[in-house]
Design goal:
The complex is a heterodimer of chains A (513) and B (313). Chain A is an alpha+beta fold. Chain A is built from 14 helices and 19 strands. In chain A, strands 1, 10, 11, 12, 13, 14, 15, 16, 17, 18 and 19 form an 11-stranded mixed β-sheet that branches. In chain A, α12 runs antiparallel to α13 and α13 runs antiparallel to α14. Chain B starts with a helix and ends with a helix. Chain B is flat. With 313 residues, chain B is mainly α. In chain B, α1 packs antiparallel against α14 and α11 runs antiparallel to α14. Classes of the chains: A alpha+beta (513), B mainly alpha (313). At the A-B interface, α5 and α11 of A face α2, α3, α7 and α13 of B.
Chain lengths: 513, 313
C-alpha cells in the first residue's frame, strides 16, 4: 500500500484501520493480492441525492461517501476526536470566534486553489439556505468570513466549544466558487477529494474518476460508481453476485445469505441509534417514576433483540451504546423482573382503569412486532395495552403536544455533529424542541447547560454520562435495543473501513486486486 | 359515427379533468404536515424549526387557498409545465419524460411477451379442450394469477442473478437488465390473456359461420386460421389496453426492486419525499395515458363491432 499523507492524517488512518473499538469495527482485511491501479468499484447506497446537490441537504452525504466532498475537519471515531482535513489547525480567538487555518497547496478538481475566500464563500452558501443544515445554520453560527489568505473566521451567537465539530459535518463540505451559480450547486469538478464526479444518471448512479492531483496522496482506485438502490434485498443480492463491491445498510433479512457466502464480508458496528419506547412523562400513569420503572422491569430486552431483531441489534443498557465515549459506566441491560414490576405497580397505586396505547411507527416495519412483544410483556404484569400503527408525520403533532401514552421510535444521536449535545438538549431538557417524553428535570438541565460550554472533551463526555445517569434513574423511557449499522463488502476489497454513519466509503486508500 | 366520437371525446376531457382534480387533492389528504415532510426528506432528522416551515410554505405557495393552488397548477399543466420538483428543484417534466419512456418500454415488452405467450397457450388450450394439455395450461396460468410481484421478483433474482449469474440483479443497462423485470410484469397478464384467448377461441369454434364453414368441407386448419383465431382474439384488444393502463401505474414494485428509474420509481420517490409536484406530475401522466388508452380501446372496439357503436348512439 502506498501512502503519502500528511503525518497527522496518516496516523489517524492507521489508527482508524487498526482499531476496532468505539463503534468503528469492521475493517475488511484480506489484502493478500497486490492492488491494481486500473480497478474501479461499485457502491450500492440506499438513497439518491436530493435537492439538486444542495450542500445543506442529505445529498452532501453522497458526495462525501463518494470521495468527492471534503470538510475543514473530520471526526475520527477511532481516536474519538476531531482531526485536520482541509484546515490544518484551529483556535478559539475570542469567546464567540474561531479561526481555522486553511491547508496550503490544495486545489479544487477544476484547478482553482483552495483559499480562505473560497472556503468562506462555500460555507456562507450553506448558512443562507432556506432549509438549514442541522449542524450549520444561523441559530448556531452567526457568520463566516475570510480574515486573510489562509484564515477563515467562524462566529457564533453564544460561546460554543463545538465549532470544530460543526465543521466536520458533511453539510459543511467545501466546493469551488464555480460550483455555485445562482441557486444551483454543481459538484462536478468542484470538490477537493480523491475522486471527481464525472457523470450522473438521475435516480440511478454517480460515476467518479480518480483525482490525479489529489492533495492527500496517491489514489489507489481508477474510479467508482455509486448506485442508488432503494430496496435492501437488491443491495444484498448485488454484493453477492459481485455486481457491487460495497452494499450499505443491509436489512436483517438479507444477513443469513450473506454470512454464509465466503466471497462476502458482513461488517457490523454500533450505530448511534437506539430503538426506544418513549413514555409520556407528562401524564398519568407515566408521570409516576415507579410506574415507568415497572414498565422497564416488565420487558425482556434480551429476548426482544434475539427475536424481532434476529440478533442484528443488542439489548440496550441505557440511552447510549456501550461503545460510545459518553456511555454511563457500568450500565447493564435491565433484566426482566415480573415480580419486581408488580411491586412497583402497587407502589405507584396503578389501577388498570383504561388500556394504555402504544403507537408503532409504520416507517420502521419491525416496530409492529416490537409493539406486540411489549403488549404481551405488559399484559403479564397486569397492564392492558392497545397497539396503534401510524405514519410518523401523522403522529408527530400529538407526540409533541403530549397527547399519547407510549410511542416506539428511534433517533440518531449524532445526526448533526459527532457529539450528542444536540440530541440531549432537544430531547430531554425542559425547553427541548423535541422533548417527546415531556421530561423536565432541573439537575439534568443544569448538567447539559454546563456541558454545552465545556471545551475539554473528556470533561464534556463525563457530563453527558452524568446526564444519561439521571435519565436512567428516572426511567424516562425504556431504551430497547442499540441498532447496528450493517454493511456488506466483497472479501477482496482492500483497506475498506466501515463508517457507521456512511460518510466515508470510497477513500484514497480503498483498493482492489 | 361522429356523435359517438364527440361523446367519447367529451367524456375523455371530463375524465381527465376529474382525474386531475383528484390527483391534485391526494397529497393534501395524506396525514401530517406536508411542509415538515418535505423538510424531513431534504434533511433527515426529526427536529424541524418552525421558521423553516413558515419560510418554505411561503416559498412554495402552500399558504394559498387550495382552489388557488389548483387553478395555478392546472393552468401550468395545460401549457405543459408540471412545476418544479420540491426535492431536486428541477422541472418535473424533465424527470417525467425519460421515466415515462423507460416505463413504456417495460410495459410494451411485458405486454408483447404476455400477448405472444397467451396466443400460443390460449389457442393450444382451446383446441385441446378437456385434454391434458388444456388442463395443465389452465391450472398453471390460474396459479400464476395469485403470484404477487414482490414475491416473484426476488425469486427470479435468486435463480438467474445469484445462482446462475446469467442476468443482472438490478439496474437499467442494456437489454439484459430488462429480462427479469419484463418477466415479472408479464406473468399475470399472461395468465389473464391466456384465459381470455381460450374462452374467445372456444366461443368462436361454436359460432354459426364456423360450423357452416366446416359443413362446407373447409379444412379444420383453414377454419381455425381464417375464422376462429381472428374472432377469438378480439377480446384481447380491450384486455391489452386495460392492462397497459394498469401496468403503467402498477410497475412501482418492480421498478423499486430492480432499481429502474421509471414512472413507478418516480411516483415512489415523490410520495416518499412528499414531493407534491413530482407525485402529481407522475400520477397525472399515468392517469391521463390510462384514460386515453381505454378510450382508444373503446373506439377501436366500437369500430370493429357496430353493435357497440349503435348501443351508445
Amino acid at each position: 500500500m502506498r501512502f503519502s499523507l500528511p503525518s497527522s492524517l496518516s496516523l489517524g488512518l492507521v489508527a482508524l484501520i487498526s482499531l476496532s473499538g468505539c463503534g468503528f469495527s469492521g475493517s475488511s482485511a484480506g489484502a493478500t493480492q497486490a492492488a491494481k491501479a486500473d480497478q474501479r468499484i461499485v457502491v450500492d447506497n440506499f438513497r439518491a441525492p436530493v435537492a439538486n446537490w444542495a450542500l445543506e441537504s442529505d445529498a452532501a452525504y453522497i458526495l462525501s461517501l463518494s470521495g468527492c466532498l471534503e470538510t475543514l475537519t473530520r471526526y475520527d471515531e477511532a481516536q474519538g476526536k476531531i482531526v485536520p482535513l482541509l484546515a490544518t489547525e484551529w483556535k478559539q480567538v475570542s469567546p464567540l470566534e474561531w479561526d481555522f487555518t486553511i491547508r496550503g497547496g490544495v486545489k479544487f478538481q477544476d484547478g482553482s486553489a483552495l483559499s480562505a475566500d473560497a472556503v468562506a464563500g462555500s460555507l456562507q452558501k450553506v448558512l443562507a439556505a432556506a432549509v438549514p443544515a442541522r449542524a450549520f445554520n444561523p441559530k448556531v453560527v452567526t457568520g463566516v468570513k475570510a480574515v486573510d489568505d489562509r484564515t477563515v473566521r467562524v462566529s457564533t451567537p453564544t460561546e460554543s466549544p463545538l465549532v470544530p465539530y460543526r465543521l466536520a459535518s458533511v453539510n459543511t463540505g467545501i466546493l469551488a466558487p464555480a460550483a455555485f451559480k445562482g441557486d444551483t450547486v454543481d459538484p462536478f469538478g468542484h470538490c477537493t477529494g480523491p475522486f471527481e464526479p464525472v457523470s450522473e444518471k438521475p435516480k440511478q448512479s454517480l460515476t467518479l474518476d480518480r483525482n490525479e492531483a489529489y492533495w492527500g496522496g496517491e489514489v489507489q482506485l481508477a474510479g467508482a460508481e455509486v448506485r442508488f438502490i432503494t430496496d435492501g434485498a437488491t443491495r444484498a443480492a448485488q454484493v453477492q453476485t459481485g455486481e457491487a463491491d460495497v452494499s450499505l445498510s443491509i436489512p436483517v433479512s438479507g444477513l443469513p445469505g450473506l454470512e454464509s457466502d465466503a466471497s462476502v464480508k458482513v461488517l457490523k458496528s454500533d450505530s448511534p441509534r437506539t430503538a426506544t419506547l418513549y413514555m409520556n412523562n407528562g401524564r398519568a400513569p407515566f408521570d409516576d417514576v415507579d410506574f415507568r420503572k415497572a414498565v422497564r422491569s416488565a420487558l425482556d430486552l434480551d429476548a426482544l433483540a434475539a427475536s424481532v431483531y434476529e440478533g442484528a441489534a443488542v439489548a440496550a443498557s441505557g440511552p447510549f451504546a456501550p461503545s460510545e465515549p459518553w456511555a454511563v459506566k457500568g450500565s447493564v441491560t435491565p433484566k426482566q423482573d415480573l415480580e419486581g414490576a408488580r411491586k412497583l405497580l402497587a407502589t405507584a397505586g396503578y389501577t388498570a382503569d383504561r388500556p394504555l396505547e402504544v403507537i408503532a411507527i409504520v416507517e420502521r416495519a419491525e416496530f409492529a412486532d416490537v409493539a406486540t412483544v411489549i403488549q404481551e410483556d405488559l399484559k403479564a404484569v397486569g397492564i392492558p395495552v392497545k397497539i396503534q400503527t401510524k405514519e410518523y408525520a401523522a403522529a408527530e403533532p400529538d407526540l409533541l403536544a403530549g397527547n399519547y401514552d407510549m410511542v416506539l421510535s428511534q433517533r440518531n444521536r449524532l445526526i448533526d455533529i459527532a457529539d450528542p449535545i444536540g440530541f440531549l438538549t432537544a430531547d430531554y431538557t425542559c425547553d427541548g424542541t423535541y422533548n417527546l417524553s415531556h421530561f423536565c428535570n432541573k439537575d439534568y438541565d443544569a448538567t447539559i447547560a454546563k456541558a454545552a460550554t465545556t471545551a475539554d472533551a473528556d470533561e464534556r463526555y463525563r457530563l453527558y454520562a452524568e446526564a444519561g445517569q439521571i435519565l436512567q434513574e428516572q426511567a424516562v423511557n425504556v431504551w430497547l435495543v442499540n441498532e447496528q449499522a450493517i454493511d456488506a463488502v466483497r472479501a477482496d476489497l482492500q483497506a475498506h473501513v466501515q463508517d457507521p454513519l456512511s460518510r466515508y466509503v470510497v477513500r484514497a486508500e480503498t483498493a482492489k486486486p | 359515427m361522429m356523435p359517438f366520437l364527440a361523446r367519447r371525446t367529451a367524456a375523455l376531457v371530463a375524465a381527465v379533468l376529474l382525474a386531475s382534480f383528484t390527483v391534485f387533492l391526494i397529497p393534501y389528504m395524506t396525514p401530517g404536515d406536508t411542509v415538515r415532510k418535505i423538510i424531513r426528506s431534504r434533511v433527515a432528522g426529526e427536529v424541524i424549526d418552525d421558521s423553516a416551515v413558515e419560510a418554505l410554505s411561503l416559498q412554495l405557495g402552500l399558504n394559498d387557498p387550495l382552489w388557488a393552488q389548483y387553478l395555478r397548477w392546472l393552468g401550468r399543466l395545460l401549457t405543459g409545465d408540471m412545476g418544479l420538483s420540491y426535492t431536486s428543484r428541477t422541472p418535473v417534466a424533465d424527470q417525467v419524460l425519460p421515466a415515462l419512456w423507460i416505463t413504456l418500454s417495460l410495459v410494451v415488452l411485458a405486454l408483447g411477451t404476455a400477448g405472444a405467450l397467451s396466443v400460443v397457450l390460449g389457442v393450444t388450450a382451446a383446441l385441446q379442450e378437456g385434454r391434458p394439455a388444456d388442463k395443465v395450461i389452465t391450472a398453471v396460468t390460474q396459479a400464476f394469477i395469485a403470484v404477487p410481484e414482490y414475491w416473484l421478483a426476488p425469486l427470479l433474482v435468486l435463480a438467474f442473478a445469484l445462482q446462475l449469474s446469467a442476468l443482472p440483479s438490478a439496474g437499467w443497462e442494456g437489454p439484459q437488465s430488462a429480462v427479469l423485470p419484463v418477466a415479472v410484469l408479464a406473468l399475470r397478464p399472461t395468465s389473464y390473456f391466456t384465459s381470455a384467448v381460450r374462452e374467445g377461441i372456444l366461443e368462436a369454434l361454436g359460432a354459426e359461420h364456423v360450423v357452416a364453414a366446416r359443413s362446407r368441407g373447409v379444412s379444420h386448419l383453414q377454419t381455425v386460421a381464417k375464422h376462429v383465431i381472428p374472432n377469438g382474439l378480439l377480446p384481447l384488444t380491450t384486455l391489452v389496453a386495460v392492462w397497459f393502463a394498469g401496468l403503467l401505474g402498477g410497475s412501482v414494485i418492480v421498478e423499486v426492486i430492480f432499481a429502474i428509474p421509471g414512472m413507478g420509481r418516480l411516483l415512489f420517490d415523490g410520495v416518499l419525499n412528499s414531493d407534491i409536484p413530482l407525485a402529481q406530475g407522475a400520477v397525472v401522466v399515468v392517469v391521463g395515458l390510462a384514460v386515453v388508452l381505454t378510450t382508444a380501446a373503446d373506439l377501436v372496439h366500437g369500430l370493429l363491432n357496430p353493435q357497440i357503436r349503435m348501443s351508445h348512439a
